[in-house]
Structure prediction request, 273 residues.
Amino acid sequence: MKNYNFLFIILLGITFANCDDTKKGENSIFTFDNSNYKAQYTADDALSLGVLNPNSKEIDSIIYYVNGKKAGFKNRNEKLNFNLKDQKLGYQYLKALVYFEGKNSEATARIELVSNVQPKLLNYKIVNTFPHDTASFTEGLEFYKDTLYESIGLYKKSKLLKTDYKTGKIYKSLKLDDKYFGEGITFINDKLYQLTWQEKTGFIYNTNTWKVENTFTYDKDIEGWGMTNDGTFIYQTDKTEKIWKMDPKTQKMIDYINVYSGSSKIKAINELE
Prediction:
């Protein structure tokens, strides 16, 4: 009886394995036809979306997606030309949902979209120098009403400073709690916003009293690095190639861009002006 039970377990295991293999097989019946794909694309390019059908399945139709959005529909195994001009720089995630013989299967792929703008090298010269405390681990700085404000980092040493940039004299100082590592700052709507590094916490201060009026938690799983604004939105960096766009009223991330210099991705973007 024990031998029969053992044999039954083996057969059951084989059955489950076969079912699992069949499931995997159904999900890998089709692949993207990347035979003519380039290593990198620019916004001037169009992408030909099509799938390979090595098992000669009878395809009814295909829906193509780019970055989760429907790009187009094709009958049978027709290809779709997709213009890349409106896509963000960075990786483009492709999906084909293939309907065939009363079933459906997905194929996925990825391409990289880079900048078609070559950066210009700029020359500069130093026209003036000003004193600054070399012990200050400056992580953020911004002028507000002709006065320099700084966010100083490091655990147990983080603080906000209001200084005379010409003399280095400190007008005002506010120490952060020891558990915070101060990062970028920016002034918008007469409020002072400050990021922290890995604590995923931001502060909103009254610009006159420096009292914390509100705190917020990053709504993305990111670090806090640089910060600036354009008068309407806040922009911040997170140690990657991304610059996030934040609504200062809700502190929600509403968009982002990926930064490229020509064909090169620029990682660890920090200070923003």
